[in-house]
Design a protein that fits this description.
By secondary structure, the chain is of the alpha/beta class. It folds into three domains: about 150 residues, 3-Layer(bba) Sandwich (FAD/NAD(P)-binding domain); about 100 residues, 2-Layer Sandwich (D-Amino Acid Oxidase, Chain A, domain 2), CATH 3.30.9.10; about 60 residues, no CATH class. It contains nine helices and 19 strands. Strands 1, 2, 8, 9, 10, 11 and 18 form a seven-stranded mixed sheet that branches. Strands 6-5-14-15-16-13-17 form a seven-stranded mixed sheet, with helices on both faces. Strands 3-7-4 form a three-stranded antiparallel sheet. Helix 1 packs parallel to helix 2, helix 1 packs parallel to helix 4 and helix 5 packs across helix 9. It is globular and about 60 Å long. About 40% of the residues are buried. InterPro entries: FAD/NAD-bd_sf (IPR036188). Pfam families: Lycopene_cycl.
Length: about 400
């Protein structure tokens, strides 16, 4: 006997977004959904920040921490390029605000059951899918559904020709004097010392003229330790931004896979992977939230229409191929990452570039953007890719 039409494992961005879509108002009774979330403890992720761009009036605007009408990029020499992303705005959403907003909507639905459990297995069974785990008291939990959607990361990344990581640490700072422009977000600031491999940049999201999230980010093969991030942040805030006196009100730290490996979206006949585990992260940028929304909407539409809700590719084969070329060019050192991204923001209209970074640009736009990249090194990388072996890496 089934407990539900769908079991969703994980209550992060992907799990909550899919639950929200499945419970949206419809003309008929909605599906029965069980949302399984980890109990409070080491498996519960700390609060996170998600950023994305869209026109004003989005579904989660009521929960935004801030949004910006201008984006700025600083080149390695300090020259600034300021772009207007209209019709988009760059938006910042904190995970707890998102959880509260979606949680309130789910609590109003009698078709949704939320369960706290540590999931041990998700597998096919003859009548659908089965989820096994243990509750906070250690008692067994068994759930059955027609479909299961698993957002947990696997232990290993898929075999890939290139695997980098976008890893970062951020400080929420409050300064003694006005130090930020609340209308302008610094998307990439390459005035940071560049590592021997990969690239680094600062990232500044102002919350007021005296408060901001200031992050130090690297694209590289290996994750740094906390002490190294702290040294980099201290240098960036004191020597580059020259913030003067400030105090740190909070921190965040994380790592995002940047890989041309193929994330399988199907783990069984009735078991699917969603979110980063299902390939929603854009390999060349690390942005995930907007792709999760598109993926969730299409899964929900299929399930509500009675079709097999196989998660669609979050990014087209064409854009994944472009990402594979860029990742290899950065990893090999054939392209200087700081100069590459600075040049794109300096020469390509901001809204067009954002569409490309989100995987929603058209072919002619991609071709015009390609003309603003180092063409010969990129073509050499295109020729090299088919010869490279694919290797697995730890998540």
């Amino acid at each position: 006997m089934r407990d539900a039409d769908a079991v969703i494992v994980g209550a992060g961005a992907a799990g909550l977004s899919l639950a929200h879509r499945l419970c949206a108002p419809s003309t008929g009774p909605g599906p029965r959904v069980v949302l399984v979330e980890a109990p409070p403890g080491p498996r519960t992720p700390p609060e996170r920040t998600w950023c994305y761009w869209e026109a004003p009036g989005g579904a989660f605007d009521g929960a935004l921490t801030a949004s910006w009408e201008r984006l700025r990029v600083h080149g390695p020499g300090g020259a600034a390029t300021v772009g207007n992303p209209a019709p988009f705005r760059y938006k910042m959403l904190r995970s707890r605000a998102f959880e509260a907003l979606v949680g309130a909507r789910l609590s109003a639905q009698d078709t949704v059951v939320r369960v706290e459990a540590t999931v041990e297995s998700v597998r096919d069974v003859p009548e659908g899918a089965e989820v096994r785990g243990r509750d906070t008291a250690g008692r067994p939990v068994l759930l059955r559904a027609r479909w299961a959607f698993d957002s947990r990361p696997a232990g290993c990344l898929p075999p890939a020709r290139t695997t980098l990581r976008q890893h970062f640490r951020g400080w929420f700072v409050h300064t003694r004097r006005p130090a930020f422009d609340p209308a302008t977000a610094d998307l990439m600031d390459f005035r940071t010392p560049q590592p021997g491999h990969g690239l680094s940049f600062g990232y500044v999201l102002p919350l007021s003229d005296r408060a901001a999230l200031v992050e130090y980010t690297e694209f590289s093969r290996r994750i740094a330790d906390t002490a190294a991030y702290e040294r980099a942040l201290r240098h960036y805030t004191e020597q580059v931004l020259r913030l003067g006196a400030f105090h740190v009100t909070g921190t965040e730290q994380g790592a995002i896979p940047m890989t041309d490996g193929h994330f399988p979206r199907r783990a069984g006949r009735a078991v699917f992977r969603i979110g980063t585990a299902g390939g929603a992260t854009r390999p060349s940028t690390g942005y995930t939230f907007a792709a999760v929304q598109r993926q969730s909407a299409l899964i929900a539409a299929a399930l509500l229409a009675g079709r097999a809700p196989v998660p669609p590719p979050a990014h087209s084969p064409w854009h994944r191929a472009l990402d594979a070329v860029l990742l290899r060019a950065l990893d090999s050192g054939r392209v200087d990452g700081a100069e590459f991204f600075t040049g794109l923001f300096r020469t390509v209209p901001t809204a067009r570039l954002l569409r490309f970074l989100d995987g929603r640009s058209r072919l002619w736009e991609d071709l015009t953007i390609g003309l603003h990249t180092p063409v010969l090194p990129m073509l050499r990388t295109v020729a090299e890719l088919p010869l490279l072996p694919r290797r697995a890496a730890l998540w």
